[in-house]
Amino acid sequence: MTAKNQWKLLALGMFMAFGRYPISWLLSSNRKVRKPGVLPSRSRGHLSCGSGNTYYVELDGPQDAQAIVFLHGLNASGLQWYYQRAYFRNKYKLVFIDSPGHGKSPLGKSLATEVLAKDLAEMMEMLGIRNPVIYGHSMGGMVTMKYAGGSGRDNVKGIILQHSGYSHPFKTTKFPRTLFSLEHPVLRPYLKFAKRHPVFFRFISMLNYLNGLSLLSYRYLLFSGEQTASQLRFMTRIAAINPPEGVADAFLGILDFDATAELEKIKVPTLIITADHDPILIPAAGEYLAQAIELGTHQQVDSGHLSLMEHAVELNVMVNDFMESPALLDHRDD
Predict the structure, then answer these.
(1) Has this prediction a pTM greater than 0.90?
(2) Which residues of the chain have pLDDT under 50?
(3) Which residue pairs from 330-334 have beta carbons closer than 8 angstroms and sit at least 24 positions apart in sequence?
């Protein structure tokens, strides 16, 4: 092998191992914000439910304060709430739950949203938490609707639905026709294939994180372009670590999601958040939810699907205003 070819091979190897850094710099803004990371918890552990699912749970904040339960989105984990945890940890009791097959939770027996909602009700009893505020992002918001309109109706003070649809997820995207046409011939078989061949997909997922290819999809699907390079790498790293069979199972679960029947049963103050630059959920979905939920209010942020990270300051103020609103404070104040 010639010296020239050796240099080419070395350059290729360097790109495959570290390409995420220059790609993240090129795709991101230069805003000066605190880098996301891992914050220490007050306590942590695993809870097993009657469904057969086991969940990793972390607790933070004052023991006797109002509880906020955080439910993350698809292919994420409780780590996605870094900025919310830093902002609220001195004021509220915070509960972070990793869905089965995500973060530190083992693979689940069932990831149907109805099952996850029933598990959530069971975990609230295990933890002795009464009248929590349930804060769900994307897939987590779907579980929140099932909980507040069903299994958890008697144990909830309020809910926050961030970038969450009320029915089949493709129905409220910017490209519904295209996605619906691909669901049965392409997407569902692909997800089932991923469940059967997790080792291959683990390798591909980590490789695409290292070389930066996965950062491209995250930038244009989940961010609006104002994220920092560290935020972009942080979220794609979480996704790369998640077991692909767990993510595929969860994706199949939300393809069967429909909470339209539960919406009229939600009788607690509800903050509904959508984003201007979110191709995954159109703002009209938030408007529909605000009309269908009796005590629902809709607000919009100038961001993408991961506004909780990209525009955390604006979002946290919005959530804090909801937490301090008379409508919420006076609800179930027993």
Answers:
(1) yes
(2) 333-334
(3) 331/157, 331/158, 331/268, 331/269, 332/131, 332/156, 332/157, 332/268, 334/131
